[in-house]
Design goal:
Elements: H1 9-15, H2 42-49, H3 64-77, E1 81-85, H4 88-96, E2 105-109, H5 114-121, E3 130-134, H6 139-145, E4 150-156, E5 158-159, E6 164-165, H7 168-178, E7 182-185, H8 190-193, E8 203-207, E9 221-225, H9 238-241, E10 243-244, E11 250-251, H10 252-256, H11 260-273, H12 279-289, H13 292-312, E12 316-320, H14 330-336, E13 344-349, H15 352-362, E14 367-368, E15 378-380, H16 392-397, E16 404-408, H17 414-429
Parallel strand pairs: 2-3, 2-4, 4-7, 7-8, 14-15
Antiparallel strand pairs: 1-9, 5-6, 8-9, 10-11, 12-13, 13-16, 15-16
Helix pairs in contact: 1-3, 3-12, 13-17, 15-17
The structure holds pyridoxal-5'-phosphate.
Residues 87-89, 113, 115-116, 156, 160, 185, 187-188, 207, 209-210, 219, 221, 372 line the site of pyridoxal-5'-phosphate.
EC number: 4.4.1.11
Enzyme class: lyase
Protein name: Methionine gamma-lyase
C-alpha cells in the first residue's frame, strides 16, 4: 500500500501498514514474538544505535508487529507517525514527555476520563508538571489559562462519560495563536467518527484498549503526530529543537523534520520510560481495527435507539447523548461529528444512588465493568467506581454525579438491550 492515503477508510483499516510477510508470504501480519534482532554486521549495529539507519534493535523500542499497528493508526488519523504504548495512560505520559519539563503546565479540559483527571491533577506533579483545568466551551477561559509555561492544551473529542463533544477547530485556533500543540484524546470517537488532525490538532492519543481493539482483550495506547508543528519556532520545546545529550548532541527537529516527535517518542520515550506495547497486544488490536467502521456504525445506531427509549421512560430523569435532539451539543455534534457520536452516554435514574446500584446488579446482558468500547454492552456507576477519587464538584463537572450511570452500548440486538434495561429498571425503581 504505497500511496495509501488515496484509499477510503474501510480499505485502510484493513490494509494500511501491512503487506504479506517477506519471509513466508503469510497474509496476516505475523506476531513477531522476539525480543531482539540480529544485526547484519557491526557497522549496521552502530548505524542503528546512532539513528543513522532505521531498523529493529530491541523490542522495547520497535517490533515489526507493533510497527504495522503504528503505521495503520497513523494513516487512519492522517498523521505522519505513531508510537504505540502499553496503555492509554502510558500514551498520555508519552505524549506530554517531549513537551514538558519541571515547572511546565498543560491546560486540560474539565471533561476528561476520570483516570486522566487523577493522572493530571495528582500524579504528574511528581515530575514537576502541573495541569490547569478549564471548561473548554469557554474559549476566553482557555486563552486566559495559557501562560508562558504552558506547553499544550489537552481535551477529548467526545468526552467520556458526559455526552460532551468538543469543538476541536475552535481550540486549535487558540493553540495555533499561542504557539503550543493541541493534544486530543480520540478514544471515544475513534478515527472513524472524528479526525482531530484534520480539524487542527497537533497530536492524537488513544486508549487502544477500547473501540480500536473492540473486544475487551488487551490494554494499549498510541500517540499519533500530525507532523505539522514547528518545534523550532520558539525555545519552548528544547527536547525536540535543542541538542540531545543522550544522542551525542543530535537535534531531533533539525535531523528528522516532521518525524522529529515520533523519533523522539521511540528513541528517548520508549527507550528510557519503557512503556512499550507487546506484539501480542498489537496483534489483537490489529484484528479489531480491521472491523472498526462496521462496529462504530452499529455502536452509534444502537446507542441512538437505546438513548431514545430511555429518554421517553418516566423512571429516567435525563439522558446525555449528543445524538439526541434534546442534547445541548446536538447542533455541534451534527456539524463536527456527522457520522455519529459513538456508543457512550450517561443517564440519570430518578431513584438516585440506591436505584443506580440496584440497576447495575439487575441487568443480565449488560456487564458491570470498568471498561468501554467492547462489542458487549457495559454499564458502570461512575460515582462509586471510576470517579470515586474525584471530589463531588469534579464528579459533577465530569457528568458523573451519584444518580448517574454510564453505558457503553455494544453491537448486540438493540431490542434485547432495551428489554434488559426495562426489566432491571423495574427492579431498581419498583
Ligand atoms: C480508558 C481511557 C483512557 C485510559 O486508557 P487505558 O488504556 O485504560 O490506560 C484514557 N482516555 C479515555 C478517554 C479512556 O476511555
Amino acid at each position: 500500500m504505497t500511496d495509501a492515503p488515496s484509499y477510503g477508510f474501510d480499505t485502510l483499516q484493513i490494509h494500511a501498514g501491512a503487506k504479506p510477510d517477506p519471509a513466508t508470504g503469510a497474509r496476516q501480519t505475523p506476531i513477531y514474538q522476539t525480543t531482539a534482532y540480529v544485526f547484519r554486521d557491526a557497522e549496521h549495529a552502530a548505524a542503528l544505535f546512532n539513528l543513522q539507519e532505521v531498523g529493529f534493535i530491541y523490542s522495547r523500542l520497535t517490533n515489526p508487529t507493533v510497527a504495522v499497528l503504528q503505521e495503520r493508526l497513523a494513516t487512519l488519523e492522517g498523521g505522519v507517525g505513531a508510537v504505540c504504548c502499553s496503555s492509554g495512560h502510558a500514551a498520555q505520559i508519552m505524549a506530554l514527555f517531549p513537551l514538558m519539563g519541571p515547572g511546565c503546565n498543560v491546560v486540560a479540559s474539565t471533561r476528561l476520563y476520570g483516570g486522566t483527571v487523577t493522572q493530571f491533577s495528582q500524579t504528574i506533579k511528581r515530575f514537576g508538571w502541573s495541569a490547569k483545568f478549564v471548561d473548554t466551551d469557554d474559549l476566553d477561559a482557555v486563552k486566559a489559562a495559557i501562560d508562558e509555561n504552558t506547553r499544550a492544551v489537552f481535551c477529548e473529542s467526545i468526552a467520556n462519560p458526559g455526552g460532551y463533544v468538543t469543538d476541536i477547530r475552535a481550540l486549535a485556533d487558540i493553540t495555533d495563536g499561542a504557539g503550543i500543540p493541541l493534544i486530543v484524546d480520540n478514544t471515544s470517537a475513534t478515527p472513524y467518527l472524528c479526525n482531530p488532525i484534520a480539524q487542527g490538532a497537533t497530536l492524537v492519543v488513544h486508549s487502544t484498549t477500547k473501540y480500536l481493539t473492540g473486544n475487551g482483550t488487551v490494554t494499549g495506547g498510541c500517540v499519533i503526530d500530525s507532523g505539522k508543528f514547528d518545534w523550532s519556532a520558539n525555545d519552548k520545546f528544547p527536547s525536540l529543537s535543542a541538542q540531545e545529550p543522550a544522542y551525542h548532541g543530535l537535534k531531533f527537529h533539525e535531523t528528522f523534520g516532521p518525524l522529529a516527535y515520533t523519533f523522539h517518542g521511540i528513541a528517548i520515550g520508549l527507550r528510557d520510560l519503557g512503556m512499550t506495547m507487546n506484539p501480542q497486544a498489537a496483534h489483537y488490536t490489529l484484528m479489531g481495527v480491521e472491523t472498526l467502521s462496521l462496529r462504530m456504525q452499529r455502536h452509534c445506531e444502537n446507542a441512538r435507539k437505546v438513548a431514545d427509549w430511555l429518554e421517553k421512560d418516566d423512571r429516567i430523569d435525563y439522558v446525555t447523548y449528543a445524538g439526541l435532539p434534546s442534547s445541548p451539543y446536538y447542533e455541534r455534534a451534527q456539524a463536527c461529528y456527522p457520522k455519529g457520536t459513538g456508543g457512550l452516554f450517561t443517564f440519570a435514574v430518578k431513584g438516585g444512588y440506591e436505584a443506580c446500584v440496584k440497576l447495575v446488579d439487575s441487568l443480565e446482558i449488560f456487564s458491570h465493568v470498568a471498561n468501554l468500547g467492547d462489542t458487549r454492552s457495559l454499564i458502570i456507576h461512575s460515582a462509586s467506581t471510576t470517579h470515586r477519587q474525584l471530589t463531588p464538584e469534579q464528579q459533577e463537572a465530569a457528568g458523573a454525579g451519584p444518580n448517574v450511570v454510564r453505558v457503553s452500548i455494544g453491537i448486540e440486538d438493540a431490542d434485547d438491550l432495551i428489554r434488559d434495561l426495562d426489566q432491571a429498571l423495574a427492579k431498581a425503581c419498583g
